[in-house]
Amino acid sequence: SVKKFLDQIMQHRMAWPFLEPVDGHLYPSYYQGPHAVMDPIDLCTIKMKLEQGSYAGADAVKADVDGVWENCRHFNGETHLYSTMADELERRFNKKLNSL
């Protein structure tokens, strides 16, 4: 199930930067300024929304999970370590989802 795959990704050793919302005190430009992320999302928020039944289906969950990776690359740039981590987690999540 999508929830199982999300849990597996969240437990991955590279997932820690994506678990919680970005701290606006540490990174104010994440939320405001020319390179701000317009639709911030994180894996714990996705899990909570999934548990509350807020998603219409797996495609909606995938759209939010994809948003996590896209936001990371937008804010950090394509070559940043966090973006490399996002690429790996995205590949793993999509591979699991495609196996459904």
Task: Explain the overall architecture.
The chain is mostly helical. It has one domain: Bromodomain-like (Histone Acetyltransferase, Chain A), CATH 1.20.920.10. The chain contains four helices and no strands. It has helices spanning 2-11, 43-51, 58-76, 81-98. The model has no long low-confidence stretch (mean pLDDT 96).
Brief rundown of the structure:
Helices cover 56% and strands 0% of the residues. The chain is mostly helical.
Topology of this protein?
Blueprint: H1 2-11, H2 43-51, H3 58-76, H4 81-98
Helix pairs in contact: 1-2, 1-4, 3-4
Domain Bromo: 10-83
Keywords: Bromodomain
Protein name: Bromo domain-containing protein
Helix content: 55-70%
What is the averaged pLDDT score?
96
Distance between the termini: 8 Å
CATH top-level class: Mainly Alpha
Order of helices and strands: HHHH
The CATH architecture can be given as Up-down Bundle
Outline the biggest β-sheet: none
Shape: globular
Find the CATH superfamily.
Answer: Bromodomain-like
CATH topology: Histone Acetyltransferase, Chain A
Q: How large, in whole angstroms, is the Cα Rg?
A: 13 Å
Low-confidence stretches: none
Give the total of beta strands: 0
Number of helical segments with 4 or more residues? 4
> How many individual domains?
1
Which structural class fits the helix and strand makeup? Answer: mainly alpha
